[in-house]
Amino acid sequence: MHRVLHIYAKEFSTSKAMAKSKYEYVRTFEFEDRCLQNCWIVVRLDGRSFHRFTSSHKFEKPNDKRALELMNRSAAAVMEEFRDVSLAYGQSDEYSFILRKNTDLYNRRQSKIMSAINSIFSASYVYYWNTFFEDKKLLYPPSFDARIVLYPTDQNLRDYLSWRQADTHINNLYNTAFWGLISMKGLSNNEAEKVLSGTVSSEKNEILFKECGTNYNNELPIYRKGTVLVRKLVNLPPSKSKKHVICPLHVDIIGDSFWEEYNEILNLKDLILNKDFKPDDIFYLVKRS
Predict the structure, then answer these.
(1) Which of 119, 86, 104 is CA-nearest to residue 229?
(2) 3-state SS class at 161
(3) Ligand-binding site membership of 48 (annotated)
(4) 63-80: pLDDT as tens digits
(5) Cα–Cα distance between 285 and 282 in angstroms, integer?
(6) CA distances from 95 to 66, 75, 92, 189 (A)
(7) What is the pLDDT of residue 7?
């Protein structure tokens, strides 16, 4: 004998009365965390325990180009998702995302913006791992911490980015000299630290040149200057239709020339067609352009 189970839709209807359940009071524990209006929103991600991560995966020292390119691709994925991220800057295991000062993304809720950008970046890092490390298995997932800082003026924002690029130069010069002494001169870690202790930039350059035969100025710009991701509107062959792309640049962002060339960033203007774009350059195509 077959039993027939009768389900009465009326009993399972989701009325407004049910939506307003007695448990809904817990929402009052949430607090308002909107970012202040008319401020640049900067989300900075940093690799968590990345010294262990890079050691476990045997990254090349002092720089692993594939790892940096993976960071850039992951950052581009964030910019593909959020059009209000007008610029991003990255070096080593960190990336800063600059949201337009007039953005209304997630109603400027700090926790939503920070968690969304962090999760997309982290997921993309894992997703694109095999693209850049074909011969190396990902042993465990990486993780990144995140923070949001607000900058009220354009100069504050430029000073922030100048600080990060200056930090790139300082750290990379030290690391290049440190690992050069180890690999070229056979020094131990402690011995290399003692040689570099208390030295200024000019002295590190001299040590690199005399002891390691390395001219620091000949090191790749991606190592010395980091990477800045910018948006461009370009014509792509063969159709030559207008496309929105994200381009990685390894240029100085401390001086005025960059900001004059990309004046739409600070002026909050729409992208204009870039006629100097070369299709052979590296770029990431924004699919939802």
Answers:
(1) 86
(2) helix
(3) yes
(4) 999 999 999 999 999 999
(5) 10
(6) 16, 7, 8, 28
(7) 43
Mean pLDDT of 8-23: 59
Q: Cβ(113)–Cβ(105) under 8 Å?
A: yes
Task: Specify the pTM.
Answer: 0.90
Least confident of 15-19, 106-110, 114-118, 178-182: 15-19
| 239 annotated as a binding-site residue | no
d(CA 271, CA 233): 6
Question: How many whole angstroms separate alpha carbon 162 and alpha carbon 91?
Answer: 13
- Three-class SS state of 242: strand
**6: CB partners within 8 A, 6+ apart:** none
* pLDDT higher than 70, residue 9: no
Task: Determine whether the annotation assigns residue 47 to a binding site.
Answer: yes
Quick one: pLDDT band at residue 12, thresholds 50, 70, 90? very low
Cis preceding-peptide flag for 221 (omega within 30 of 0): no
CB 249 within 8 A of CB 230: yes
CA–CA separation, 245 and 36 (whole Å):
30
Query: 84: pLDDT confidence band, cut at 50, 70 and 90?
Result: very high
Per the CB < 8 A criterion, the answer to whether 195 and 187 are in contact is yes
Residue 241 annotated as binding site: no
Neighbours of 178 (CB within 10 A): 20
Q: In the numeric block, which tokens belong to residue 99?
A: 């949201």
In angstroms, what CA-CA distances link 29 with 17, 79, 192, 195? 22, 32, 53, 55
51 is in an annotated binding site: yes
Tell me how far apart the alpha carbons of residues 212 and 191 are, in angstroms, rounded to a whole number. Answer: 15
13 known ligand binder: no
